[in-house]
Amino acid sequence: HVIATGWNSRIVDVLQKNPQYKKVAIHFFHGLGDILIFNSTYKLLKKSFPSIEFQIFTNKKGISKAVDGLIYSNTIEEILGFDVIFSISYHEPIVTSAGIISTKLIQCSNSEIGFDESIVTDVPVHDLDPNINRLVAVHLDAQSSPHETSPDQEIKNKIFTCLISQGFYPIDLHLAVNAIPDVEVVFSLIQACKFYVGVLSGPLVLAIATSPEKVICLEKNLELSRYTSADVLKYSIKDFNDDSFSKVIQKLLANLN
Length: 257
Fold this sequence. Notes:
The chain is an alpha/beta fold. Helix content is 35%, strand content 20%. A five-stranded parallel β-sheet has the order 1-5-2-3-4, with no helix packed on it. Strands 9-8-10-11-12 form a five-stranded parallel β-sheet, with helices on both faces. Strands 6-7 form a two-stranded antiparallel ribbon. The radius of gyration is 25 Å and the shape is elongated. The mean pLDDT is 91.
C-alpha cells in the first residue's frame, strides 16, 4: 500500500487515523544532502510514534550509513513487508521575488509530514561514526631504482582494486603532491589516513618514522631489511594476489584494533 504524501495524505495525519499501521516504510529517493537535512525530521517522526517500526529507503548507493536505518532499494517495488509505504516528494523550496521563503525541509514538514515548522529544524544531521577512517595513503612510484622497487601498472591496478573492494579509498601520494616531494604535505596525508601502503622510498621511511604500526611495506627486488630493522608488515609484490594481500591488510587492521 503506497501513499504519495501531500496536504491530504500527510504522514502524521494518516498514522493517527490508522493505529493498525505498525510497520511503516519511508520512500525517500533523494540525494545525500536531502537525506541529511531530512534526518532530524525523520528522528522526530520516530519519536512521535514510538510503537511503530520505521524504515527509510534510498535509491542512492553508498550513502546508507549516513542515517540510522537507511536502506538501499533500487525501486519502490522492492520495498516489501510493510503495512504502508509513504513516498515523499520533497519538492523544491518556495521562491518568490523577495527570495526563498521556505526551505525544502520546512515545506516538506508542513505539507508532507504534518509537523509544524516551529518544531523542526533544517540543520543537517548525520549518524556516521566520528571515528571512522576509510582513507589509505598509497605510494607505488619510487623516484630512485623504480625497476627494483615499483610494481608494473597491472599490479598497481590490482592493489587499488583490492583496497577499494574492502571499503577503503586509496589516495596516491605521488599524484596528491603533484610529484613535488613536499615533506609536510606527505606527512599530513600519512597522519590523516587509516594506514599506509607503499614501496621502498622516502615516503615509506617517513611513514615508518611516523606510525610504523600503520605501514605495509611492498617489497620487490629490494628488501626493507637492507635499510632498517624497524618492525613493520611486509608484502612481496612479486607474488601478488588478491587473497594474500587482503590477508595482510586484515592482519594490519587487527593489530591496530
